[in-house]
Amino acid sequence: MKWLLVLVTIVASAVGGAAAYYYLGHAKEQPMTIVAQPDVRPETAASETPVNDPPAQEPGIEKKFETLLNDLLKNVSGQMAEYKNQRKILVEAVKPVNLRSPAYVKENHTLVQSVAAELRQKMDALMQVFSQTGTEVESLVSTQDSETRDSVLAKWKAMENEQVGKYISFFEGEEEDIRAYEALISFLNETASDFEVDLENDRITYKSPENEARYQELLAATQKPAENQEEAVKTP
Q1: In the chain, which ranges are continuous DSSP H helix?
Q2: C-alpha distances in angstroms, 53 versus 41, 43, 46, 50, 58?
Q3: Is 17 part of any domain?
Q4: DSSP string covering 54-73, please?
Q5: How many angstroms separate the Cα of 233 from the Cα of each of 59, 171, 175, 209?
Q6: Of the listed ranges 17-31, 47-61, 84-98, 204-218, the one predicted with least confidence
Q7: How many domains does the chain have?
Q8: Residue 205 three-state SS
Q9: pLDDT for 133-156, tens place per residue?
Q10: CA atoms of 76 and 129, how far apart (whole Å)
Q11: Contact 195, 184 (CB under 8 A)
């Protein structure tokens, strides 16, 4: 059987050699194929460069001045709203319904003193707004030519004189009213044991005729019409 094994080995070797010869020969006959890559070109320089918008021009001197005035009027309006809201406390503090007992009178006396001081501080702060804006206007025109500077300053002075005059008059009247409320609540506090509160008729009645007369006098001083005061400080 050895001869059969040798024969099988020879045949296998022959077949393997023929297969190898066929593969190599076939490979030599096939040309190498090169696949061309698509031609990708970069975008042009013009498309790569972003287009910038021209820088915004700085507002002119007149526009800046207008902005300052608008800020001033907005500031004044806001402070006046706060002032008027706080001033209402004075009116409420001396109403009969809030003076039903000596303890209430004493509390309201302290309250009026505190509110009066705060109102005076608000008056000063509001007038300072005009002074501060004047400084800002001076700074705004400091680098301008003389014609522009004189024109802007003239407009500012005209507006300042008109508005400051109105507020000075308004606050002079307010100071009188605040003092009237201070005098009334002080008198009520001193004579708290001598009056009774009539809630049904919303009034105070003194036992002493002298105190009743003085009370009516002080009360009248707090009830002056305020229409002219309100009209005086309307901003344009």
Answers
A1: 2-29, 45-48, 61-93, 102-141, 146-190, 209-221, 227-232
A2: 28, 22, 16, 10, 15
A3: no
A4: PPPPPPPHHHHHHHHHHHHH
A5: 31, 10, 15, 40
A6: 17-31
A7: 1
A8: strand
A9: 999 999 999 999 999 999 999 999
A10: 7
A11: no
Helix (H, G, I), strand (E, B) or coil at 97: helix
Per the domain annotation, does 3 fall within a domain? no
170 contacts 229 by C-beta, under 8 angstroms: yes
Burial class of residue 159, CB neighbours in 10 A (0-12, 13-18, 19+): middle
Whether the Cβ atoms of residue 79 and residue 125 lie closer than 8 Å to each other:
yes
At residue 15, what is the residue type? V
**Do 229 and 169 contact (CB within 8 A), yes or no?**
no
Closest CA to 235 of 21, 79, 115: 79
Q: What is the pLDDT of residue 224?
A: 76
The conformation of residue 103, written as its DSSP 8-state character, comes to H
pTM, full prediction:
0.70
E strand or H helix at 196: strand 195-198
The enclosing domain of 133 has a CATH number of 1.20.120
- Which residues constitute the domain of residue 80? 61-232
Contact 181, 94 (CB under 8 A): yes
- The helix or strand, by DSSP H or E, that contains position 206, with its residue range, turns out to be strand 203-206
Rg (CA), the chain: 48
For residue 195, give the 3-state DSSP assignment: strand
CA–CA gap between residue 47 and residue 181 (Å, rounded): 77
Residue 68 lies inside a defined structural domain of this protein? yes
22-75: pLDDT as tens digits: 333 444 444 443 344 444 454 444 445 555 554 444 568 999 999 999 999 999
